[in-house]
Amino acid sequence: MFDSSLVIAILVGIAIILSFLFWIASRFRRCPSDKILVVYGKQFGSTGKAARCIHGGLAFVLPVFQDYAYLDLAPMSIEINLQGALSQQNIRVNVPSAFTVGISTDPGVMENAAERLLAMDQRSVTELAKDIIFGQMRVVIATMPIEEINADRDKLVANISSGVEVELKKVGLRLINVNIQDITDESGYIEALGKDAAARAINDAKIKVAEKERDGEIGKAEADREKRIRVAAAHANAVQGENEAAVQMANSNASRKEREAEATRLGTAAEKVKSADALREAYAAEEQAERQRAKREEAEQVATIVVAAEIEKRKVEILAEAEAEKVRRLKRGEADGIRLVLEAQAEGQKAILVKKAEGLQALVMSAGGDPKAAAQLMVTEQLPLLVAEQVKAISGVKIDKITVWDNGSTGPDGKTRTADFLSGLAGSLPPLHEITRNAGIELPSYLGKITPPTPPPAG
User: Fold this and answer.
1) Strands (E), 50-127
2) Which has more pLDDT, 120 or 439?
3) How much is the average pLDDT of 93-122?
4) Which domains can be identified in the chain, with CATH numbers?
5) Backbone dihedral angles phi then psi of residue 120, each to the nearest 5 degrees
């Protein structure tokens, strides 16, 4: 039989061992996933840290030397109603926003939370985070213009996040989310920017509609122009056929009809082109007017006096452009008219020269194909005019009185002095043969010949 005292001793020993094991097990602390286990007190080893933070897993807590606590990782929502923050342009803006923060699980940052937040409740942590966020938001907004704050929300959120994140890490927190709500300002500048954007969108839509309508009108005008051109071409072809038949009776009449048909076609085409140009310029002017109106509304929100001056300036520019376009069109029309007149004169001169060439050709043919004989005929035709000019040469000479003293004696040739004077006077008139010879024509023999003078007999 076993000794009862031995059995009792063994049971006591086992109980002591089991109690020690249970005690050892009770000193292990598990960390839930939504908390951070902070073991503080005496830290053995060379860590040099005041606390050891564990996220997930377990840790052994030495009795007497160490103790433990938990940091809650639940997100904290913070409403930030920032009012009157100065932007880069010294315009005060209101930036209501909502931030979601929580205790960070990053190594190194958890220790900051253990050192600064372990004894604080969630409300105190929220107030601390709110103070940090307020200060950093004012710093970020002061570095950004109001247009960028209103238009580029991503950049605003990024700047705020980067600034706030750095400061929150110093106390062991991290930024989870930023939600910027409607931004307003005391002067109404942001509201004006919104109206300007809406006006631009509406004007863009109107411009697109006007462009589509313009394209339709231009297409219709082009089709109408093509129709009229083809009809005019058909009429021109018909007129050309009639003119070709009439050419056999009168070349000048055919040329005139052909020029009239061509002028009609060019005038119709030019009228349609100018109509299309006017329609396109009208749409361009309407588009310019819409843009000017949008800019005027934007300028009214910035400075009324500057806007009025700018509108007046643009109005003058538009009127100047319209006046310049009017002058250009008038000059273009005058140039087209001058060109048509010169073309008509050139055609008329051409017709005259063609007829003259045909007449000269007929004259040469009538002279037996001899150009020289034809030239002599032409000069012969002009002899009356030549003689008339010779007569005019002395017709203006006025001789009031001629006195000839003649005593009745004769000279060596048997003529009296009066006869010599009259023959000399007659010889001073240019003979017909001399006139024709100077023109390169030899008169026929039945008109007489010039006999060279007989030299006087030698003494």
Assistant:
1) 51-54, 57-60, 66-72, 76-86, 92-103
2) 120
3) 87
4) 4-71 (no CATH), 74-187 (3.30.479.30), 191-363 (no CATH), 382-393+412-439 (no CATH)
5) -100, 145
